[in-house]
Amino acid sequence: AAQSVKQALEQVVKPEELNGENAYHCGLCLHKAPASKTFTLHTSAKVLILVLKRFSDVTGNKLAKNVQYPECLDMQPYTSQQNTGPLVYVLYAVLVHAGWSCHNGHYLSYVRAPGGQWYKMDDAKVTACSIASVLSQQAYVLFYIQKSELERAGESVSIGREPGALGCIDHTGQASKHGELQRGACLQEPDLEEHLVERATQESTLDH
Question: Does an H or E element contain 192, and which?
Answer without folding.
Answer: helix 189-207
